[in-house]
Amino acid sequence: MLTIWGRISSINVQKAVWAAGEVGQSFERIDCGGPFGGLREPVFLDKNPNAQIPVLEDGEVCIWESNSIVRYLAARYGSGWIWEEDPAKRADADRWMDWMQSELQPALAPVLRGLVRKEPEFMEPKQIAASIAKAERLMEILDNHLAKRSFLAGERFGMADIAVGCGAHRWLNMPVERFARPQVQRWYEAIFARPAARPALALPVT
Ligand SMILES: N[C@@H](CCC(=O)N[C@@H](CS)C(=O)NCC(=O)O)C(=O)O
After folding, report:
1. What is the mean pLDDT of the chain?
2. Does residue 80 surpass a pLDDT of 90?
3. Which domain holds residue 141?
4. Integer angstrom CA distances of residue 2 from 11, 63, 92
5. What ligand 1 atom has the least distance to the C-alpha of 52?
6. How many angstroms separate the alpha carbon of residue 37 from the centre of ligand 1?
7. Can you tell me the mean pLDDT for 182-189?
8. Rounded CA gap, 105 and 96, in Å?
């Protein structure tokens, strides 16, 4: 049985929980981080010296970085399913996972921290507006991409849908006026309906 360390309100923990469910692995999830604390305890720092969640343990294997966890679960338990053996097809998924980390997530984080968490240093309206505008540009790119395929890397659900799907879930559930993105909406509804998505995305965005 796997162990996933981290509170379920974390977008990065959500990816790990969703991926484990998709590949049919049962897991114990241990709440830590945020209000649960514990990330600076020696026992946790031994697992992840960055003091961040999620961490995945699978027997002797211990992994941090959410996208690496999704890739590991996909490669180990989801080959030919959410993992692509073909390098070109896999790169198709990889680029969207990296896009999530380097583009979408940095655009969404200040909106969440300003509008939802109401952290004083993120509540400057101009800063929030700039992050929303950046997120809208990214959603337009996503919408155009999804106009030509059912899922991010083609006609089959895969690991990139998990990583970017957690970002889309956050964006679509924040108190923001959004442009209509019919393809993103269609794709989001399809992936959100998956049984493995439910335990990952059950809580309101906080
Ligand atoms: N790049 C890392 C980022 C991890 C990260 O930022 N985790 C946040 C939660 S989303 C964290 O540990 N925050 C401290 C806390 O929750 O106390 C990943 O993708 O796993």
Report:
1. 97
2. no
3. 87-200
4. 19, 11, 28
5. 12
6. 12
7. 98
8. 12
The average pLDDT across 96-121 equals 97
Out of 36, 53, 77, pick the residue that ends a domain: 77
Across the range 147-153, mean pLDDT stands at 97
To test the pocket of ligand 1, the residue of 5, 8, 9, 10 to mutate (highest count of ligand atoms within 8 Å of its CB) is 10
Q: What is the reported pLDDT for 135? A: 98
Burial of 177 per CB tally in 10 Å (0-12, 13-18, 19+): exposed
- Please indicate, yes or no, whether residues 28 and 118 belong to a single structural domain of this protein: no
Per DSSP, the three-state class of 156 is coil
Domain count, the chain: 2
State what percent of residues in the chain have pLDDT above 90. 99
Same domain, yes or no, for 31 and 105?
no
pLDDT level of residue 114 (50, 70, 90 thresholds): very high
CB of 105 closer than 6 A to ligand 1? no
Residue 82 lies in a domain: no
Convert the pLDDT of each residue in 120-132 to its tens digit: 999 999 999 999 9
Q: 149 CA distance to ligand 1 centroid (A)?
A: 31
